[in-house]
Design a protein that fits this description.
Largest sheet: 9 strands, mixed
Number of helices: 12
Number of strands: 11
Order of helices and strands: EHEHEHEHHHHEEEEHEHHHHEE
Structural class: alpha/beta
Strand content: 15-25%
Oligomer: single chain
Helix content: 25-40%
Distance between the termini: 11 Å
């Protein structure tokens, strides 16, 4: 359909920790897989979009930029972008979709490559981020030793504990569900199930978040090809329509905003589509920490504000055969930290019926994929028309 954007090819490299394969080569692996699925050649690609671009001061976090991929593959790009000051990781997909809708490109490779586990194992090659002074967003956190996002995420979570009665047993259901689904995903980093006893006995990281509430550093690359609606005659796969997009940014400062960015983002998403939450067959919700999917469920209207804990209680609703299957590939807690892109990738896999053992029963046609949720948030509504 002219003036619309679709996800066509999707690809993923090997997902592992302490990889020795160069991150650019991991990116090329994922690109090849995406091109093959879409039935496209590199000569048909005329755009590249990535988050957050190459970061020389912190290469483990983002070792490959748009420029490098363009050079490595000889892409004749009419449009490209790479940057971190956007509405979280899937904002790169929003940018690509906007570009193809505007006629600036026909087929755009969107990618996110992470190399944090390898970087920690080889600090001489990938030096850790060090500064003798702080500025920007870090001025609000680093002086207090609050480097990890777990610190400020825990504050939001504690408000749910004190104001809405969120329990650790409810919070655990996200991690338990992720791990159960990861066991069915051959690419998942962790394929052993997690028990409630193991969860409750794990060491605390930042109350109420424990070790199993946190995602895992990973070395991998994920690719999505965003194509223009008037270029679909060039692809051989089932296109997945980007039916709606939304994103927002809240304050990064330690003086927190009243609500995380997922709440305005979730409300905004439904303003751009005739679909409603009742139409959604699966949700792939960012889970850098297990608390995030609970807030996304509230923000997107699947339950009321403060009711997320009760919505996931017992795990049946969000199980593979439940009314709203959550993170069917294992999320970042089970499958590994693909830093946002894995959720859109899995949405496409499920809508095409290619999930294998983890495939949702029936005929799923509509999915929501998100990234971020704290100071930055992005949501995509994806549909197999």
């Amino acid at each position: 359909m002219k003036g619309q954007a679709y996800i066509t090819g999707v690809g993923m490299s090997e997902v592992a920790v302490r990889q020795t394969r160069h991150p650019l080569l991991l990116t090329l692996d994922a690109v090849r897989e995406a091109l093959d699925e879409a039935g496209l050649t590199i000569g048909q690609i005329d755009g590249v979009s990535t988050y957050p671009g190459r970061m020389p001061a912190y290469l483990g976090f983002s070792p490959v930029g748009a420029d490098e991929l363009i050079d490595a593959l000889g892409i004749r790009a009419r449009w490209y972008a790479g940057g971190g000051e956007i509405s979280s990781q899937l904002g790169a997909v929003v940018a690509a979709a906007t570009a193809v809708r505007a006629g600036l490109a026909r087929h755009v490779i969107c990618f996110r490559t992470v190399y944090e586990a390898a970087a920690m194992a080889r600090p001489d090659e990938y030096p850790p981020l060090r500064r003798d002074r702080v500025d920007g967003a870090s001025q609000w956190t680093a002086p207090f030793g609050a480097i990890s996002a777990a610190n400020w995420t825990a504050q939001y979570a504690m408000r749910h504990v004190s104001k809405y009665g969120l329990t650790r047993e409810q919070l655990a259901q996200v991690a338990l569900t992720d791990r159960a689904h990861a066991a069915l995903n051959p690419r998942a980093l962790v394929r052993e199930p997690l028990t409630m006893e193991q969860y409750l006995s794990a060491r605390m990281i930042s109350t109420p978040l424990c070790l199993y509430d946190c995602d895992r550093f990973t070395d991998a690359s994920t690719v999505l090809i965003v194509s223009s609606g008037d270029a679909l005659d060039e692809v051989r796969c089932t296109p997945v329509h980007i039916a709606a997009m939304a994103g927002s940014v809240e304050r990064h400062s330690w003086d927190q905003a009243e609500w995380m960015a997922c709440y305005p983002t979730g409300a905004e998403l439904w303003k751009h589509t005739d679909y409603t939450p009742a139409d959604v067959d699966t949700v792939q919700l960012y889970d850098g920490f297990a608390f995030y999917p609970i807030t996304w469920l509230e923000a997107l209207g699947f339950c009321g504000v403060g009711e997320g804990g009760r919505f996931v209680e017992g795990g049946k609703r969000i199980a593979l055969d439940g009314e709203l299957p959550l993170n069917t590939f294992g999320g970042q807690i089970g499958a590994g930290r693909l830093h946002g892109f894995g959720f859109a990738h899995e949405s496409v896999v499920q809508l095409r019926g290619k999930g294998g053992e983890r495939q949702i029963p029936g005929d799923p046609k509509v999915a929501v994929a998100t990234s971020g949720g704290g100071p930055l948030a992005t949501a995509l509504l994806l549909a197999r028309d």
